[in-house]
Amino acid sequence: MNILEELKWRGAINQETDHDGLNDLVNKKSVGIYVGIDPTGDSMHIGHLIPFMILKRFQLAGHHPVIVIGGGTGSIGDPSGKKSERVLQTMDQVRHNQDALTAQMEKLFGQDGKFEIVNNYDWLSKLSLLDFLRDYGKLFNVNTMLNKEIVASRLEVGISFTEFTYQILQSIDFLHLYRHNDVQIQLGGADQWGNITSGTDLIHRVEGQDAKVFGLTIPLLLKSDGTKFGKSEGGNVWLDPEKTSPYEFYQFWINQDDHDVIKYLKYFTFLSQDEIADLQKKVETQPEKREAQRKLAEEVTEFVHGKEAVKQAEHITAALFSGNVADLTTAEIEQGFKNMPSVEVSSEPLNIVQWLVDATKIEKSRRQAREDITNGAIRINGERIEDVDYEINPANKFDGKFVIVRRGKKKYFLARVK
């Protein structure tokens, strides 16, 4: 099975400019293929990850990935998928973002063969206005540009000339990469089809109709309920571990619905057809074990954050499920309790009843606090406490930074020591 057949099986092909020509090309040689990303932020989220997962598959199949960081186009703004104008960023912010994205790409692509990261600022910034208009603007028909979905969808609310020219700039990128980096395929999301076909048209006008260049897009990924994939209740799921911790990242994947998990295994893992078929049977026959979800979480977390992050996420998950939080490190507490209810407390030792009522307000009254303690419903740092005279000393555990309270079977609270 070649790379295109595999992508079709995975449900990862939306449109191709020329299927037969593209199929012949990837079967004959190692091909240069590129995906671009504009530095509109300093981290990718999992929605951005989708085309780069496909690019990674091309790399593993022996092809040559080229990643374009849009230092030039990122200062302009891509209208694709947007209902209004982007807010222009300062060049300092663009440079900061492109450095952060470059580091993420190096982590994702650096282990498996050769790849390139280039910045379109390097060539777009050298174009004068007159060169842009004479050499490229003359080759683009305004009527054709207006009919592209990326522009047509914005005509009612309006689109600036700046964003209107974006598809010309992206086309120049493709031409530059064709000439200087031996790139023959551009890959992108479904919303990039108009930009990609503008690029293939430009190359054919400049280099001739025999130029072997192709476009390939990926379908918009939807959840089984019809909503767009990529966000959790807290917003975007980021690849930056400072924005979304590896534990939170792992939890996002392990909590996926049975109706979606096989589709995500096809998209986001490098498991074989047989391995995924086996997991699909387990979803159908033993859904309560959630083996497919665990495998999905393990595979994607390892790809993005590494094996140690998977071990840590699994350790935190097991500790929270069992209640054995005493085994967690301070760093693991930071991850696992990031979004749990928390309060700030003094570092001074205090009687448990006073601490639960006055210091943290975890309990509503002293009477309720004493009742919960004597009934064995209160655990402090994983230890069941049944003595109402027990003294809580925040310095005793977790480097003096945290006290973890569990009330009942599942209700956790985090006290952060001032």
From TrEMBL:
SUPFAM superfamilies: Alpha-L RNA-binding motif, Nucleotidylyl transferase
PROSITE patterns: AA_TRNA_LIGASE_I, S4
Main localization of the protein described in the UniProt heading: cytoplasm
InterPro entries registered for this protein in UniProt: aa-tRNA-synth_I_CS, aa-tRNA-synth_Ic, Rossmann-like_a/b/a_fold, S4_RNA-bd, S4_RNA-bd_sf, SYY-like_C, Tyr-tRNA-ligase, Tyr-tRNA-ligase_bac-type
Motif position, 'KMSKS' region: 228-232
PANTHER family the record matches: TYROSINE--TRNA LIGASE, MITOCHONDRIAL, TYROSYL-TRNA SYNTHETASE
Subunit-structure text: Homodimer.
SMART domains (UniProt xref): S4
Enzyme Commission no: 6.1.1.1
RNA-binding S4 domain sequence ranges: 350-413
Gene designation per UniProt: tyrS
GO biological process, alphabetically ordered: tyrosyl-tRNA aminoacylation
Pfam family, one: tRNA-synt_1b
Motif mapping: 'HIGH' region: 39-48
Organism domain of life: Bacteria
Positions with a binding annotation for ATP: K231
Molecular function terms, GO-annotated: ATP binding; RNA binding; tyrosine-tRNA ligase activity
Organism: Lentilactobacillus sunkii DSM 19904
Name recorded for this polypeptide: Tyrosine--tRNA ligase
